[in-house]
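To whoever is covering the structure queue this week,

Two jobs came back overnight. Logging them here so there's a record in the thread.

Job A:
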Amino acid sequence: RGPAPGSTDHAPRPLPLADTSSAYDLPPPAVHGCWYPSADPSGRRLAFVCDRAGVPQLWTAAVDGAEVRLLDADPHPVVEVAWSPDGRWIAYTTAPGGGELTRVLCVRPDGSDRHLLAGGEPGT
C-alpha cells in the first residue's frame, strides 16, 4: 500500500517478490499461418495451405475447424489449392525448391491417389 492521500510520507516500502527459485524458460510459442482456403462444392470442408511444419503444405478440415488433416507432407512448398467441381479431387501446385518452376498435382480428399498432372519431379 502506498501513502494515504495527502500524506507526505514517501519512505520506501517493502515490495514482495515472487519466488523464482523454480523458474524455467518457456519454449517459444508455435506460430504458423494458414492461407489460400478453398471450399469443397458442398461447403462442408476446406482445403488450405498451412506451414505448421515449417513449410507450406496441403491440409483439409471441416469448416468448423474439426477433422484437420495433413494431405501432403512433401518438402516442396504448396503454392495454391482448388477443389474439383465434383469434390472428388483436390488440385494443388507446388514450387520445388521454392523456385519459380511449379508442378500441378492432385489427391483425393482422404489423402489417397496422389499423382502428378503437370511439371516434372524434382531432379528429373
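Job B:
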Amino acid sequence: MSVFAAIGDGIAGLSSVGALAAAAIAAVFSVRSYRADQRREEREQAALISAWCASRRKDSGADRRSARGLIVRNLAPAPAFEVTVESSYAQKAREDPVALRPLRIAVLPPGEFYVEEQERGWSFPELVSDLAVPPKPVMNNPGWTVTALEFTDAQGTVWRRDGRGRLESLGRAS
C-alpha cells in the first residue's frame, strides 16, 4: 500500500467521524427545537385565557352606583373548563384588600364575558359586546385585583395564572 493511499484512507475515516459528529449535533438541536415547539403549542390556548377586575355603572334610571365585577376572556377557538377566578377588593388603594368569593365557571366558551358580584355570589356571565353600558377595567387599585386564575384547557392540562399574570402548568386533570 502506498503512502498516498494510507493518507487517503485516513482522511476518509476522519471525514466519516466528522459527518457522524455533525449528524449527532444536528439531532440534538432538532430534538431541542421539537420540544420547544411542543411546549409552545401546549401553552397556546392557556396564553389566550385571562381575567381582570372591572366596574360598571348601573344603567337603571336614578341608580348611578357602580357595580363590581370581573371580565373573563377566552380568545382561544376552544372552550376552557373548570375555571376558577380568585380576586380581592379594596375600596381605596391604601386599604387592606378582602378576598372575594371565588368565581367558578364550568365551561368558558370563546369570548369576553362580564360577571357581576352579587350579595350571594356572582351573576350569570354576559358577553361584554351585549352590554348597553360596558365595564371599565380597574387599573389603579392594587387591592382590587384578580389574585389567581385556574382552568383546564381543551387538551386536559390544568393551568394557573397568578396575580402578576404568570402562567404555570399544573399537569393533567384527574
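Note for Job B: The mean pLDDT is 87.

Please reply-all if you pick these up so we don't duplicate work.
Q.
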